[in-house]
Model the fold of this input.
Amino acid sequence: MTIELSHFSAALLFSVFASVVFGITQRNTPREQIRYGLYCFAMFFGGVFLAGWVMWFLRR
Amino acid sequence: MANASLNNSKASSPPMTTMSVLAPALGWLVPGAGHLIQKRWIRGVLLMASVVIMFVLGLLMQGHVYHANGGDILDILGFVGDVGSGGLYLLTLAQDWGHGAIAHATADYGTKYLIVAGLLNFISVADAYHIAIGKKP
Done:
């Protein structure tokens, strides 16, 4: 059994799992963990869009 | 003077308990188990799910699993990342899985997923140790 994820969904899943681990391990209280996890996710996801637009401009 | 310095370093070193050895070891072997054994149920389940799903997705995406090697530096680093997954990595070796298919465009993503799953597990092992020595609630 194999799966083929698109570039976008692969980056999205990567962001989710990495953010969960970063949030839990890098902060102490549950509230801080959730906030930091969401922050990491936003940074990952924002980075994906930023990189996408940079590549779009480079291609033109 | 030297004795005072030695005593200070002893006083500041973390206490060596059974849990401070068991939690990281178990956490490496079974991702998230280092937290579960210390009754951090939600954190343990979330860490386990994240690392295991990421590792399994990496395998399903035809990622390449690195073996112990003394060759190219990137291959060595790939092995270090992979071995972080502990029991999952050992199971993969035992079953002879993880022969990457270069034909797939996303196979390289699979390889990266496998490595990052191991690296994330290293972080969760360190976290389990910090909980065990009382440095983190």
Observations:
- Chain B is about 70% helix and 0% strand.
- Chain B has a mean pLDDT of 89.
- Residues 62 and 107 of chain B are 5 Å apart (CA to CA).
- Chain B touches chain A through 27 residues (CB under 8 Å).
